[in-house]
Amino acid sequence: MGEAGLPVSPLAPAAFPDLPVIEGVEFASAAAGVKYRGRTDVTLIRIAEGAQIAGAFTRSATRAACVLDNQAKLARGGSADAGAAIIVNSGNANAFTGARGQESVDAVTGAVAAELGIPATHVFSSSTGVIGEPLPHERIVAIIGDLSRKLDPAGAADAARAIMTTDTFPKGASATLAGDGGEIRITGIAKGSGMIAPDMATMLVYIFTDAKIAAPLLQEVLDSGLGATFNAITVDSDTSTSDALILAATGRSAAAEITSLDSPAGQAFAGALQDVMRELAHLVVRDGEGATKFVEVRVTGAASDSDAKKVARAIADSPLVKTAIAGEDANWGRIVMAVGKSGAEADRDRLTIRFGDMILAENGWRAENYDEDRASDYMKNQELLIAVDLGLGQGAQTMWTCDLTHGYIDINADYRS
Amino acid sequence: MGEAGLPVSPLAPAAFPDLPVIEGVEFASAAAGVKYRGRTDVTLIRIAEGAQIAGAFTRSATRAACVLDNQAKLARGGSADAGAAIIVNSGNANAFTGARGQESVDAVTGAVAAELGIPATHVFSSSTGVIGEPLPHERIVAIIGDLSRKLDPAGAADAARAIMTTDTFPKGASATLAGDGGEIRITGIAKGSGMIAPDMATMLVYIFTDAKIAAPLLQEVLDSGLGATFNAITVDSDTSTSDALILAATGRSAAAEITSLDSPAGQAFAGALQDVMRELAHLVVRDGEGATKFVEVRVTGAASDSDAKKVARAIADSPLVKTAIAGEDANWGRIVMAVGKSGAEADRDRLTIRFGDMILAENGWRAENYDEDRASDYMKNQELLIAVDLGLGQGAQTMWTCDLTHGYIDINADYRS
């Protein structure tokens, strides 16, 4: 069973991965009883002096107090000469909690700053869980001393577990690349399962690297990776109030500083970071509420990338497409519907629809050698590819989604997340 | 049980209404065996000489052959001096059927034209059901003689039944108003249950009136009524390939011709027509796939009408809001989420959220006298009002939606519509 008492997703990886330790980053997790009982729900992360920080946050107009606070702090600069910290709680989102929301953020980040001797302007925070309930921040403040004493470079796996809400498994991913003069390591953790249609980052994601790279460049690498990773996933088309991704570089690798994204070293780092981001994003979809299928929606041949994105999103968000997938029904007519409603330029007679390597429809109609039995067999797979070529131009976008099942209704009609 | 073997929606009206006969309009329905067995599935409607026709159709880029055909015919003028006809089948949408789709439309409308002695340019058609299967139009052509012999001015109720797909009850609405010198009658029928997020009209709707009114003005009245009726409903955010509304005026009322929408007669007619359109639109939501709750989403105080529409649609389409309603959970935090993701201008501290006459949230937080028990009790109602005031301007939009239940998953994971 997962932390919220839900059965573990059938799409979960076999085990949590071994994440490389990032020199200069330590984690501690504990149970503050914010909402859940009998599990950890607060994580403290300390990042050593000289770290460079970048972030990406939801564009929701009703974003949570902690998100606004993080954005304000990062706007003043991501160079954390005196170190930085991140404090995260699950069980309560501290969103739509009025002026009291900021008071809670100040109380928690202030307590961390005092405990660790770090300026509060570099103490970031995230809260995830129910919206509109006051955050019992005194419960978090009360355990900060404990957390501080437990800080451990190998604590990432416990942290991934403490930040879960309706997640059924903890999520982590890493990469190690050969830098110029030494290895560079990247380690990330994430949580997210429902309310997933990121408009900037996703739920909560923390990625750490020992690369030497200045904050503005770090932010650039992060921004350039979002479109094909976190902004390319959807579980239910609902965008969270709390989406946040924080990326910290400690500079402790022996590898030379990365000073440009056009250099081979810069490109290698950007590629490895994007791999970690994509893997974490996929793990969120694999833990989509009620999910039983992991689906890649690959759109090509659109008049523009923006049109491709509209089509991919229309398919990946469509309740009718997602219920057909749940029912293992090769109902490609619903793909046609989604293309039609997307608002993108489309021409019936140039559209090609493939499931896996089978062409189902082309030239404006069902493919000549369409085989319903073969298509139905394909739908029994746990991992599916839906490919749409619009036959109009070079625009392309790939998105990842899951099916819409009774499990989603169970979780969301019965559980106040 | 409804025609597709589904239990009748708990939101269905007690009985099909008595629809006034419109002089000059006759209906006939029969079983052609297009897909379903043991029920009627084709309706023929004859409209007498001198009728004026207006229409509204989906803007889907993958719209069905019959929709494209209707649009091309209406573009040449809605004045049907030699009469008009509408032929509708359920069980097959004739959408994404390539060039063969238009051949089917030509075969069916040509046969009707020959049988009734009406120019094919004024024979309109609709098909609804599965997408991507060739329409067995010969089965429809074969029964057109039968249909012609059965034409009956009182056949609207049977027609409302013959056009159903996953609908669980037939849908009709009417109005009678005092015209200038005589009564004017309006009678309409509709079908629709899933794939409902009209972008122009809704599924299939046919409205008839004996008013004297020229086609361009009739089209104007129709267009002005769409925004607050059919374009203001959603079941599942999925827009059909086949949405079509045809409005025909026979001119047989004794009332004087309506020559302007600014006149009292014009305003009364527009108002009565909009009432019929709204009622039919509501019936579609009441028959939303799996629906157990009928929900009005009323957004006011937005910076613009367009912003109000974004917010109303974000709430009405949100799977998380709709599953909370299904679970009778007063989870207003999900309303905050939907406002935030909508893309409309919003200010947390000016937002007010009401369920019925209860204020749940205001001034950026939970209302002071918020009573969870009272809110939970309210959610047990079958008809719910969710009202959001953004506190920014005069923009307003009301939409209607239903809840998202296990029934929706059952219908769409197991039934190929």
UniProtKB/TrEMBL annotation, chains A, B:
Pathway: Amino-acid biosynthesis; L-arginine biosynthesis; L-ornithine and N-acetyl-L-glutamate from L-glutamate and N(2)-acetyl-L-ornithine (cyclic): step 1/1; Amino-acid biosynthesis; L-arginine biosynthesis; N(2)-acetyl-L-ornithine from L-glutamate: step 1/4. Keywords: Acyltransferase, Amino-acid biosynthesis, Arginine biosynthesis, Autocatalytic cleavage, Cytoplasm, Multifunctional enzyme, Transferase. Its EC number is 2.3.1.35, 2.3.1.1. Transmembrane segments: none annotated. The record marks A201, T202 as: Cleavage. The keyword Glycoprotein does not apply. It is found in: Cytoplasm. Belongs to the ArgJ family. PANTHER family: ARGININE BIOSYNTHESIS BIFUNCTIONAL PROTEIN ARGJ, ARGININE BIOSYNTHESIS BIFUNCTIONAL PROTEIN ARGJ, MITOCHONDRIAL. This is Arginine biosynthesis bifunctional protein ArgJ.
